């Protein structure tokens, strides 16, 4: 079995980034990245996510967006007439050509969330796309910096443990602000993983300080669990409630812990978070370029 599908959610209101998000989706905010010519460039966050997962062999992507939103779809629709014009004028950037090659090799779908009814509701909108296949679920407003190995490890652990769901966690000092898991460590088919027996959203009395990172790998049974999940007191369907439904239905749910010495979870959901992410990605690219230059004697 291979994991070749990804669901990327981009349907949030972006209320903490108003008034900016009246004009641009937060998932389209630019972050620093290494260019095809090994220089510094800017790419929308959602493009970086797609490219990272593409590099791991994923080829089918479903974006869950707000009703009436076309910004992400328009961005990934590269018109050949425009590309030919740029090439004829000698203005076709290498990075755009690389994106064109990637887009010609993937299948993209866009589904719409009519009303902002929560993360879980957004995910279950992609049920038809998922079908009976396993998939990566990635929130569109966050990224693991240089996280390709983390994504690969998450997929590998999901396959080795034959899990229903593989979660990613990180240790936090303020778990009341996050989805939090409880459970115990186990060794499953040679992999040391955390067996999740409980997960709760923003608990007043957290069972642990292991907070969810918004990157997951699931099999299709999460969609059945989400269909059975009703809205909570906030009127939203939480993914964490769907995961609990999966566990109570004898689903095997495990978690890995993010090594934040090597990797960093970046979120652009607030002005402070975005500016921090922009600065960290700039420093990361500039640092890798400086190291490459030193190594090559430049």
Structure description:
By secondary structure, the chain is α/β, with parallel strands linked by helices. The chain has a single domain (5-295), classed as Spore Coat Polysaccharide Biosynthesis Protein SpsA, Chain A. 34% of the residues lie in helices and 29% in strands. The chain contains 10 helices and 13 strands. The chain has helices at residues 45-54, 71-75, 80-88, 94-103, 119-124, 127-130, 148-161, 221-227, 239-248, 271-295, and strands at 5-10, 30-34, 40-44, 60-66, 107-113, 135-139, 142-145, 165-171, 179-188, 191-201, 210-218, 253-257, 264-267. The chain has a 9-stranded mixed β-sheet with strand order 5-4-1-6-11-8-12-10-9. A hairpin with a 2-residue loop joins β9 (179-188) and β10 (191-201). α8 (221-227) crosses α9. The longest helix is centred in the last third of the chain and has 25 residues, at 271-295. The protein is globular, with a radius of gyration of 19 Å. The termini are far apart. Residues 291-298 have low confidence and may be disordered.
Secondary-structure topology with pairs:
Layout: E1 5-10, E2 30-34, E3 40-44, H1 45-54, E4 60-66, H2 71-75, H3 80-88, H4 94-103, E5 107-113, H5 119-124, H6 127-130, E6 135-139, E7 142-145, H7 148-161, E8 165-171, E9 179-188, E10 191-201, E11 210-218, H8 221-227, H9 239-248, E12 253-257, E13 264-267, H10 271-295
Parallel strand pairs: 1-4, 1-6, 4-5, 8-12
Antiparallel strand pairs: 2-3, 6-11, 7-13, 8-11, 9-10, 10-12
Enzyme class: transferase
Family: Belongs to the UDPGP type 2 family.
Organism: Candidatus Marsarchaeota G2 archaeon ECH_B_2
């Amino acid at each position: 079995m291979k994991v070749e599908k990804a669901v990327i959610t981009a349907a949030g209101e972006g209320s903490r980034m108003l008034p900016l998000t009246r004009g641009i989706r937060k998932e389209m905010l630019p972050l620093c990245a290494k260019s095809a010519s090994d220089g510094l460039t800017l790419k929308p966050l959602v493009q970086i996510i797609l490219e990272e997962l593409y590099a791991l062999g994923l080829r089918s992507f479903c974006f869950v967006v707000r009703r009436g939103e076309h910004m992400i779809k328009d961005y990934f629709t590269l018109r050949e007439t425009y590309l030919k014009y740029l090439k004829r004028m000698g203005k076709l950037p290498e990075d755009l050509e690389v994106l064109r090659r990637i887009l010609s090799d993937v299948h993209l779908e866009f589904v719409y969330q009519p009303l902002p009814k929560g993360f879980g509701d957004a995910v279950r909108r992609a049920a038809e796309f998922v079908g009976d296949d396993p998939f990566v679920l990635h929130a569109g407003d966050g990224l693991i910096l240089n996280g390709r190995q983390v994504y690969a490890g998450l997929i590998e652990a999901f396959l080795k443990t034959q899990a229903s769901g593989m979660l990613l966690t990180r240790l936090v000092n303020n778990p009341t602000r996050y989805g939090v898991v409880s459970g115990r460590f186990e060794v499953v088919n040679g992999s040391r993983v955390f067996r999740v027996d409980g997960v709760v959203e923003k608990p007043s009395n957290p069972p642990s300080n292991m907070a969810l990172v918004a990157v997951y790998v699931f099999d299709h049974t999460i969609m059945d669990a989400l269909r059975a999940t009703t809205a909570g007191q906030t009127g939203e369907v939480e993914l964490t409630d769907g995961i609990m439904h999966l566990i109570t239905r004898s689903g095997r749910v495990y978690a890995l812990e993010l090594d934040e010495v090597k990797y960093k979870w970046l979120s652009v959901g607030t002005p402070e978070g975005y500016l921090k992410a922009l600065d960290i990605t700039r420093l990361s690219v500039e640092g890798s370029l400086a190291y490459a230059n030193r190594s090559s004697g430049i």
